[in-house]
Write a structure and sequence with these properties.
This protein has one domain. It is 17% helix and 51% strand.
Length: 158
């Protein structure tokens, strides 16, 4: 269950920032960095991401490092393009049109949470990428997403 949450966190960082992009003027760029740790210390993930929004389209670039139970780091980079659609004042969907990933120096295709999510076909289905804004201010935004059973996320603007 925890690994499912990690997958959701990775995916919804993009979705959360897409919603942020909708509340600003077109042509907005974000630089994001986050870490994910497992309570039992057998997993650690780091991700750096750049996002760009223009009109109803987005583009993202990621670099990810994950370390699982075998303590062997897995590295990959990813590039995605897609579109987001507003259905009502606070409900959006995201659809990926293009996606490519390069797994660097890995012996196998990784099965760790962040990387597994990156090659999931679900990211192309707009019906699986719904985002609902529950609260929005100049400093914070809180969303609910329904991918993989649901997730609530809050983000502070800097």
């Amino acid at each position: 269950m925890f690994y499912a949450s990690l997958i959701i966190i990775a995916c919804f960082n993009i979705l959360l920032l897409v919603v942020y992009g909708l509340s600003e003027e077109p042509g907005i760029a974000y630089d994001v960095e986050y870490e994910v740790k497992h309570m039992s210390h057998d997993y650690h993930g780091k991700s750096k991401m750049q996002l760009y929004f223009h009109n109803n389209e987005f583009e993202s670039k990621w670099v990810v490092e994950e370390i699982g139970e075998d303590h062997q780091p897995v590295y990959f980079e990813s590039h995605s393009k897609g579109e987001f659609k507003k259905h009502s004042r606070n409900v959006y969907t995201v659809r990926y049109n293009e996606h490519s990933s390069n797994f660097l120096e890995n012996q196998r295709l990784p099965d760790l949470p962040i990387s597994s999510n990156f090659y999931s076909a679900e990211r192309y289905l707009s019906t699986r990428n719904t985002v609902e804004v529950k609260y929005r201010s100049d400093d914070y935004i809180i969303i609910i997403s329904f991918l993989n059973g649901g997730q609530i996320m809050a983000m502070k603007r800097y």
